[in-house]
Amino acid sequence: MKAGHRLVLFAASALGIAWVYCAGALNMPAWGQYRGPYGDAIAHLAVYQRHATDTVNAVTYDYRGFDTLGEEFILFSAVTGVMLLLRPEPGRPEAKKGKSSGNPASFRDRATLSETVQVFTTAIFGFSVIFGIYMATHGQLTPGGGFQGGVILAAAPMLLYIAENTDAFRRIVSHPLVEFLEGTGAAGYALIGVAGLAMGTAFLTNVIPLGTTGDVFSSGTIAAISACVGVEVAAGFTLVIFEYLREILSREKNEEP
Amino acid sequence: MTAIPGVGLLALIAVSALALVRTDDVTCQTIALSYYGLLLALMFFLFRAPDVALAQITVGAIALPLMVMLAITRMKHREATRRKEKEGK
Amino acid sequence: MSFPADYPYFVAAWILLCGLYGIVRSRHLVHMVISLTVVQSSTYVLLLAIGFRRAAYAPVFAGLPVGARVVDPIVQALMLTDVVVETTVVALLLAMVVKAHEKGGTTSPDDLRFLRG
Amino acid sequence: MPSPALLVAVPLIVAALLGALRRLIPRWTADLLSILTAAGNLTMACWWTAHALHRTQVYWFGGWFPRGRMVLGIGFTMDGYGCALAALAALLTTLALIYSWKHFESGGGHFHPLMLVFLAAMSGFAVSGDLFNLFVFFELMSTAAFALCGLKTHEPAPLAGAFNFAVTNSVAAFLMLTGIAFLYSATGALNLAQLGQALAGRHDRLVLAAFVFLTTGFLVKAAEFPFHFWLPDAHAVSPTPVCVLFSGIMVQLGLFGAMRLYATVFQGCFAGTRIPWIFVVIGAATALWGAMMCFAEHHLKRLLAFSTISHTGLMTLAFGLWSKAALAGLFIYLVGHGLVKAGLFFCAGILLHRFETMSEPALFRRGRALHWTAPLWFLGGLGLAGAPGFALAIAEAHVTPVAPWTEAIFFIAGTLTGAAVLRVGLRVFIGLGDAGPVDRSATVDEKPETNDPGRLVNTVLYFPALACIGGCMVLGFWNGIAGIARASAASFVNFSGYVHMVYAGATVVAQPAPVQSALLKGVLWAGLRGVAAAAVALWAVLHLRIPRPLRWPSHLEGSMRPVRELQSGHPGDYVAWLTLGCALLGAAVFWLAL
After folding, report:
1. What residues 206-245 of chain A have any CB closer than 8 A to a CB of chain B?
2. Which of A140, D445, D181 is nearest to C52 (CA)?
3. Is the CATH number of domain C7-104 1.10.287?
4. DSSP string covering D356-408, please?
C-alpha cells in the first residue's frame, strides 16, 4: 500500500473509531463524579485490614497483588527479551572488530568535563542510591514503592557514566550479580506468594505480622514485596542499559590503552 | 480548584501529543518525549495520583527517553563503524 | 466554573487517534515506537479521568483521617501496571529496531519488508 | 487438591531461577527442569479439568473473599473450558520443549525462561476471572511471544516479523485497556461476574463501545480478518517450537478471551440481539480468506500459518452460533486443531532441520528419505481437512447441525487447507509432478535453528510430531471427549452458575443429557472432505498433465497473487487495517444493537 492510500484508509476508519469512542464517553459519569464502589471500599478497608496508609500500594501489592506479579514478569520477560535480541553473536567478538576498524571516533565528545560536574554528579550518585532505597522501602506509607525506587536505583550508575567514571560504571553494570539479582527479585515475589500456600492459606496472603500503621516495618508482605520489586526493577533496568551500551563500552575499553 | 489548571494542562497535552507524532527527526522527538512525559507526570500530580506521578517521572521523563537515546546512539555508532570499515577497505 | 463535563475523555480519544496517526504515517521505526507510547498515554488520561473525584484527596492516608473523601485508588494501581507495561514494550521494541538496523541496515519501515506476499 | 495458583506460580519461579542462574547451569539441566515444570503444569491442569466436569470452583488470591456482592481481589475460575485450554497449553509446551532438547538454539540460555513465562501466561489467561487480570496475562503472553519470535537474530526477517507482531498486538492491548476503562467507569467493578451482573440488560452506547474495543483487542490476537496480517509474518520467522505454541494455542486463546468475555460480561446485555452473528460473519470471512491464502502459499510455515487463520475463523463461526452443541464442538475443535497443527509444525521443523529451507519448490523430492515424517505429514493433512478418524471430524459433526449452511464453509476451508498440506506432501515426500511455482515468500532464506552439525533426525524430533498426530487420532476415536466437551460447554454458557461459583465458592455442574448428534451424516461429510482434499491436492500437483482450462487449483493460486500484495510486511499498513476493522466492528455493533 502506498503511504497516501494508507493515510486515506486510516482517516476514514479513524472517524469511525472517534465516533464509537465519543459515543461511549458521552454515556460515562461526568468528569469528577466517580461513583464506583470498588475504589471506595478499598480506600476505607486498606488502612484497617493492611495497616498501610498508601492505599494505592495496598492495592498494587496486596488486593490486586497477583496483577503486579504478572506485571513484574512482564518486566522480567522484556529484560530477558532484550538480552536475547542484543546478545553478542558467537564468532563475531566485538572487541576484535573494534581493533580492526582502525581508530574510530568515540560516540561521545572528548571535550573534558569540568571537575565541578564530576564531583557534583558523583555526589548525586550517592544521593540517588539512598533515595532509591528509601522510596522502595517506604511504599506502604507514602507515594513511591518498589518500582519507582528501582528505576531511581538503576538510573544512579548512569550518573557515573556522565561523570566519565566509565570504569566504575562498567564494573557495576556488567557484574554477573546484576542478572542474578534480577531473577531472584522476580522469583522472590512469587516465593512470598508461595509462603502463603505453605502456611495453609491462599497464594499471596499476608504471612508477616502487620506491625503498627505508619511504621517502616508495618503492613507485612506489602513492604517485603515492594523490596523484591525494587531489586528486580533496579537490576532489570541496569541490564537493559548495559545491553544497549555493550558495544559502545567495549569500544571505549579498547581505546583506553 | 484544580479545574482551570487541569483543563489547561489537558489541552497542552493534547497539543503536545500531536506535535510529538508530527516530529519527524528522531533526536528532537526524544527530547519532546521527555517533555511530554513530564507533562503527563504534572497532570498526575494535579489529579491526585502521586504514586503514578512518581512512576511517570522516573519512567516517562527519564528511563524511556534514555532508552530511546541509547538505541539511537547505538545505531549511529553502528553506522559510523560501518562507514569506517568501508573506508578502510 | 462550568466546562464540558466529558472534556478529558475527548482528550483521551484525541491522543489515541494522534498516536495511531503517528504509527500509520511513520517513516522511522523509532518514531513508530514513540507513537506507540502516545497511544498508550491515552489510556492514562482516560483511566485518570474516570477515577477522578472533585474536591477529594489523594488516596494516601498518611496524615489524613480514614474515611476522608479520596479519589479512586484502583485506577491508579491499574495505571502503575500500565506504566510498567509501556516501558517494557518500548525496551523490547527498541531492541528489535536496533537489531533490525544492524542486520538490515535500515530504520525505515518501508525498507524493512522482508515478508511480503 | 493442588492450588490453582501453582499453575502460574511454579513456571514463573522456575523461569526466574533459570534466568538468574543462566550462566551456571548446563544446558541439559535447563532442558530437563523446564520439561518437568511443563509436565507438572499438564498434570495439574488435567486434574482441574477432570474436577471441573463435576464442580467448578473459584480461587481468591490473597484470601480476599468477596464482601457481600463486592469483589475485593482477583479470582481464578476453574471451569472445564479454561482448565482444558490450560492443559492444552501445557501439553504443547512440554512437547515443544522436548523437541528443543539439546540441539535447538537457546539464544544464550534465554529460551527456556521465556517459554516457561509464556506457559504461565497462557495458563493464567485461560482461567482468570478478572477483567484487568486478563489484560495483564494478555500482555505477559505478548511480551514473551515478541521476544521468542525474534529469537533468530542473525537475519533481518525475524526482526521485521517480530516488530510487526509487537506493534499490532500492542495497539490491540491498548484498545483492550480502553475497553476495560469504559466498563470500569460504567460499573466500578473488574470481576467478570460482578460486571455481568451490573450490566445485565443494559446495552447503551457506553457498553457497546466497551464491547467494540475489547473485542477488537481479542480478535487481533485471534488473527481474524482484517486483523490477521501480523500472524503469517510472525509464524514465518519464529522458531519451530514457538510456532507450535503460537498456532496451537496462543491464537485460539485470543478467541477464548472474546468468548469468556461474551459469556460472562456481555451475554446478559446482548440477549435477544443479533450481535453474535457478527462473529459468524467475521469467522466465515476469515475461514474462506485464510483457506485461499493458504492454498496459494509456498512457504511451509506461512502456509501452515494461513491454515491457522482459516481454522480459527471456523472456530469463531462456531462461537458465533452460540449454542451448547456448537460450543461443545468448538471445544473438541480447539483441542484437535491444536494437536494436528502442532504436529504439522513439528514435521515442518524436521524438514527445516534437515534441509535448511522452508520453500516448497526448494524441498521438491528431497523428503523422500524421511520415511517417518512423510506418513505423519499426510495424516496431518487429512486431519486438518477433518477426515473421519480425526478429532476435527467429530467437532464438525457437533457444530454443523446447529446451522446446516455452515457445512459449506467447513467444507471449503477444510478441503483447501488440507489440500494445501497434502500438495506439499505429494511434492516433497513423493516427488509427484513438478516443483511448483517459485514465489517471493518462498524465497525467504532460512538459517538453521538447530546446532546439530550432522543434521540427523532422531527420535527426540519425531516424538512430539508423533504424539500430536497420534493424539488427534485417539481423540477422533474416543467417545469420552464428547462428554467432556458437552459438560464444559454447558457450564461455560451458564452465567448464573458462574455467578454462583464466584460468590458461593463452587457450583455443581449439571450433567448434560447426551445429544444425538448426526454422527452418520457427520462421518459422510468428513469422508467427503478427506477425499476432496486429496483430489484437489493431486489435481494441483499433476496440473501439467491436465488441459489448461481445467487447471483450476493453479488458476486459484494465480488469481490470489494481487490479493497477496495486501500482505505487505509494513507495520503501518497493518495498523491501518486494524483501525478499519475496529471501525467496521463498531458500525456493525451499533447498527445491530441500537
Report:
1. 237, 240-241, 244-245
2. D181
3. yes
4. S--BHHHHTTGGGG-TTHHHHHHHHHHHHHT-TTSHHHHHHHHHGGGSTTHHH
- A208 inside domain: yes
Q: Do chains B and A touch (3 or more CB pairs under 8 A)?
A: yes
In tens, the pLDDT along D444-495 reads 556 677 777 666 777 888 899 999 999 999 998 888 888 899 999 999 999 9
- Chains within contact range of chain C (3+ C-beta pairs < 8 Å): A, B, D
Q: How many domains does chain A have?
A: 1
A130 is a domain residue? yes
Whole-angstrom distance, CA of residue A108 vs CA of residue D437:
52
pLDDT of residue C115: 67
Helix (H/G/I), strand (E/B), else coil: A119: helix
How many whole angstroms separate alpha carbon D447 and alpha carbon C66?
A: 63
Q: Identify all chain C residues contacting B17, using CB atoms and an 8 Å cutoff.
A: 14-15, 18-19, 38, 41
d(CA D141, CA C88): 13
Q: Is C37 on the interface with B (CB under 8 A)?
A: yes
B chain contacts of residue C99, beta-carbon cutoff 8 Å: none
Distances (CA, A) of D13 to A75, A146, D148: 14, 19, 19
Determine, yes or no, domain membership for A63: yes
Task: Give dist(CA A212, CA A218) in Å, integer.
Answer: 6
What pTM was estimated for this model as a whole? 0.95
- What is the per-residue DSSP string for D93-144? HHHHHHHTTTTB--TTTTHHHHHHHHHHHHHHHHHB-BHHHHHHHHHHHHHH
- What is the pLDDT confidence band of residue D437, given thresholds at 50, 70 and 90? confident
Give CA–CA dist A42/A56, Å, rounded. 9
Instruction: Assess if residue A197 is contained within a domain.
Output: yes
pLDDT of residue A100: 39
More confident residue, D330 or D458: D330
Break chain B into its structural domains and give their ranges: 3-88
Measured CA to CA, the distance from residue D353 to residue D240 in angstroms comes to 10
Least confident of A52-66, B43-57, D502-516: D502-516
Complex ipTM: 0.94
- pLDDT digits 0-9 by tens, A95-142: 444 443 434 444 454 556 677 877 888 888 888 889 888 888 887 787
Read off the amino acid at residue A83.
Answer: M
